[in-house]
Predict the 3D structure of the following.
Amino acid sequence: MGGRPTWAEVDLGAIADNYGALGSLLGPGARLIPVVKADAYGHGAVAVARALAAAGASTFAVALVEEAAALREAGITGEILVLQGAWPGQEGEVVRRRLTPALGSAEAVARLERACTEAGSEIPVHLKIDTGMTRLGAPHDALGPALDALAAARRARLAGTFTHFACAEEEDRAFTLAQLRRFEAAVAAVRGRGLDPGELHLANSAGLLHHPELRRFSARPGIALYGYAPAPERAPLALRPALQLKTRIGRIVEAPAGASIGYNRRFVAQRTTRAATLGIGYADGYRRALAGHARAIVRGAWAPVLGAVSMDLIVVDVTDIPEAREGDEAILLGTSGPCRIDAADLAAAAGTIPYEILCGIGPRVPRLYLP
């Protein structure tokens, strides 16, 4: 690889397998719209989109116009659904890149219609309905202005209608089912206005995994594609984590009892300690909150993190791994022998969620793609 020996291995075959397993849950006529926003949750959007296209995906969902533009520039030709739509001033880029924006207001429809008219183009759009997230989208009980604008539009063609669930992973299903009822009433209002709502898509990963009644609609899985199920203890299928995070031991020193290691002397050796320095830190996404709570895997054994997590380095204890040597591989996410660390483990140690762990692995960490 050259350079600093810190890298992430991304198993594209695992992502394709997860895509197939999730798709098997859907009813007739429904499909998956894989979510590759946030650089495919830290896995690399371009490589992941290519792998998913080879596995049968024809539409990809991103959050931002900028993310969609990067996919287009990399040669991704499939439909790209922009979940946040076009922020004011981005409409021309949406039209030029042949994107499919989400729209949630009469004003957004009007801006896009003007851009289409100026370009002499037509593009598909999806109507986002707010059924309880209270972030973006047309309110489910006040759709009139948005529907009037869509009915009047000649170049912005309604091709889909969707919503997003707030808490589909929770055992209490009441709010998710309330959101479903609101969505169905809103779709009836769309039809009542003389509009075809197009493709209906509702479920995120949690909705798809935990709510069978949603599987008659298309779904937008995100985190599950990458091997993590919200509320995994209740998931109906097994998923394969796709990313391993690795580095190598750069230096091993013997620290005598009483020696401190790292900033602010957060670790003081109680015994002679073999301390191994690893070339990864919080600038790479290995969070400072992991200090004192996380372990690496060296030669199939546990190596606890000692002291503070620095910007570029961490130190682990290999005292009980006497065969450990400088240059040995150290696994921060992944499996070796009986030891396994996944993003859920690191999230629990850091007091966060697997999404943040994966998305936080920074651009200083090269991705190595496995077929």
User: Anything to note?
Assistant: The longest helix spans residues 174-192. The chain has two domains: 12-227, 243-370. The mean pLDDT is 97.
